[in-house]
User: Which sequence fits this backbone?
């Protein structure tokens, strides 16, 4: 009788150990997944097909920060920027690169313009419109236009989270465009090579209409326009625009535009990180944005 009881107890103990091992293997398998991912969501990290949005190389046309970086214990957000490219790969990695890129950073009640030379890298998972972004590494530096607390430059590793989507994000794809709205920042992007609307500067400038106002709503175009005494309004972003003749006034509401003006009586800039130059006259200038440059040139 003792032998039978001992055998039964041994079998029961072995069964319990086996069950515990199975539970531990399942737990370890789940622990290997990215934070916030369960075994039932494994399909959300499957590679995206080449050529399928959001995979591709994108030009950043607008940056609107919400949260993100902490530099010297102070929360820093990006309010505008230009000159960046974002590459999203089919194996769920991303790279943000800035080569002499410009950005306006705000934190601790201060605003400072800066030049970015560096890269940030990370990964992303998701399907449809919902994704999760994470920064893994960064290199390079962010040179400030003026010193902040005795510091003239920050590392890209510090500032990267203010420039890139972080945490949960919603992606909206359009023809040659992509918008990423995340917990840290909103990026408006245009596919590299997309600019089919681009009009090369020619010897015969485009004539402004006769209605009194020339309006540029497109983004990413190169264009020459004869003002012919009319007002000009630029709503688009990331454009290269040349206005010949005399413009009654020029108002720039978009961001990251390069605007060259022959002659005008007034220049008003409401957007950010625009570069506006004029050749003749002595116009009244008004800068209501951030990171803009308005000068005779």
Assistant:
């Amino acid at each position: 009788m003792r032998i039978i009881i001992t055998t039964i107890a041994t079998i029961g103990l072995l069964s319990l150990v086996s069950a515990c091992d199975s539970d531990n293997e399942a737990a370890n398998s789940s622990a290997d997944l990215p934070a916030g991912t369960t075994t039932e969501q494994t399909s959300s990290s499957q590679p995206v097909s080449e050529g399928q949005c959001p995979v591709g190389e994108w030009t950043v046309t607008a940056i609107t920060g919400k949260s993100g970086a902490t530099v010297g214990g102070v929360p820093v957000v990006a309010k505008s920027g230009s000159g960046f490219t974002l590459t999203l790969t089919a194996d769920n990695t991303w790279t943000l690169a800035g080569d002499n890129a410009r950005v306006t950073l705000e934190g601790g009640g201060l605003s400072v313009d800066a030049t970015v030379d560096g890269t940030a890298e990370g990964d992303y998972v998701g399907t449809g419109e919902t994704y999760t972004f994470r920064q893994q590494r960064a290199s390079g530096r962010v040179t400030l236009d003026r010193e902040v607390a005795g510091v003239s430059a920050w590392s890209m590793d510090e500032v990267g989270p203010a420039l890139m989507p972080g945490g949960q994000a919603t992606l909206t794809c359009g023809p040659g465009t992509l918008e990423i709205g995340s917990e840290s920042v909103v990026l408006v992007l245009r596919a590299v090579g997309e600019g089919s609307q681009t009009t090369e500067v020619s010897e015969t400038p485009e004539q402004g209409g006769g209605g009194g106002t020339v309006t540029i709503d497109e983004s990413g175009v190169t264009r020459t326009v004869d003002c012919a005494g009319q007002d000009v309004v630029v709503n688009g972003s990331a454009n290269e625009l040349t206005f010949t003749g005399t413009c009654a006034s020029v108002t720039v509401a978009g961001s990251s535009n390069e605007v060259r003006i022959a002659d005008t009586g007034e220049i008003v800039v409401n957007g950010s990180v625009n570069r506006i130059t004029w050749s003749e006259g002595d116009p009244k200038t008004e800068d209501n944005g951030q990171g803009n440059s308005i000068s005779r040139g």
In short: Confidence is low (pLDDT under 50) at residues 1-49, 195-210. The helical segments are 2-31, 156-163. Residues 35 and 132 are 10 Å apart (CA to CA).
